[in-house]
Design goal:
Oligomer: single chain
Largest sheet: 3 strands, antiparallel
Mean pLDDT: 82
Number of helices: 4
CATH class: Alpha Beta
Helix content: 25-40%
Radius of gyration: 26 Å
CATH architecture: 2-Layer Sandwich
Strand content: 15-25%
Number of strands: 5
Structural class: alpha+beta
Strand order of the largest sheet: 3-4-5
Shape: elongated
Length: 144
């Protein structure tokens, strides 16, 4: 595959250019009068479910990583408007997509359940006793 047709995420994963949708709009923020005239902000759209480039395990992790940036249709939406030029915002959005895909490739470590040590149990009980004594001392004294 030619690099102009997309970008390589890993040895086995190559995302095609046609899988990425872009829309340009006016940005808020820096730019002076240019903000009102030029469409420099970029909205990048990547349909996770329809992507033939990604294996199922990467798709499921990417959905979790996307969070609120994921639409109900399974489309990842990234908006970039940090910079004053369209090209830099476009590169920023693509870089963020690339980073998300890279993070989705890494499988999370399995948690090994551990038991608390005897010392940690004793420390916990001592702190509970101390807290209880503090609360007892705050009480109004009882009249006999």
């Amino acid at each position: 595959m030619d690099e102009s047709e997309g970008f390589r995420v890993s040895r086995s994963i190559f995302v095609l250019e046609r899988e990425i949708g872009e829309r340009f709009m006016r940005a808020s923020g820096p730019g002076g009068q240019n903000v009102n005239k030029v469409s420099t902000a970029v909205e990048l759209r990547f349909d996770i479910d329809a992507s033939p480039s990604l294996p199922l395990y990467v798709k499921s992790r990417l959905r979790k990583l996307a969070g609120s940036r994921l639409t109900n249709d399974g489309v990842l939406v990234l908006r970039a408007e940090r910079f004053r030029t369209q090209e830099r915002n476009r590169a920023d959005a693509r870089e963020r997509l690339f980073d998300l895909l890279k993070r989705a490739l890494i499988s999370p470590r399995k948690r090994r359940p551990t038991r608390p040590t005897r010392a940690s149990k004793e420390r916990r009980l001592q702190s509970k006793e101390k807290r209880a004594r503090t609360k007892v001392l705050r009480r109004v004294p009882q009249k006999e």
